[in-house]
Amino acid sequence: MSSPLSLFPPRPLALLLCLASAGCVGNRAVVDPVLQITTPGGSELGVSTEFGVVFLGRTARSGAIEITAWFGDGPSIEPTVIEPLGGGLYTAETEIRLPSVPMTFFQPHEGEILIIVGRTEEGPWEEHVEVLTDPRVYGILLEVPLQIRARPDQIGAAVFSEREGDRRLLGLVSGLLTIETADGARQFLTVMGPEDLWRLVTHRRDRHRYKAWVYRDDVM
Asked: I want to staple 60 with a disulfide (CB 3.0 to 4.6 A). Which of 21, 39, 75, 136 is the partner?
């Protein structure tokens, strides 16, 4: 007995499985708050928070820039302009709502484990590091992960505190510091932390009166 005539051409099994799987469908709700900031002077990292974008301005402190944000279905490039916050921090406002994270304003204690998240051309990376102290230094000091020791362009990476699965932005990696000790030179990461990030909050003091977000076809 002959088989009935099909009105549709046969489809590869892999394609059918993909269509049936939620994992094959782009999801713009996936949160990746680490941004790439492209300026006339180069590229650097930034973070999108509940109060807006924040970055160090290492490659530019004014003028037009492009912000690349990663959603679940791929990157989105948004043109904007740098706004100074003061104290070595900068922000920029985008037309669309970016993936973002909440912030914390609690100072970490010595021995606490924080999470550094950065991004290279190979994609995002993260590393757990310990909070360190030195009596000669005021501020937050961290261990130096290999991802930053070998890649100074990762200065500006996000520093998160995570408690019971609640990850919040605590600061931005601001540089490398070498200190002479009795055992020789020791290197630390410095962080612009809660005492600096308050500038973003006060800059967004009108956050409850934001202009309406734009909803475009490419970000729906």
From this structure: 39
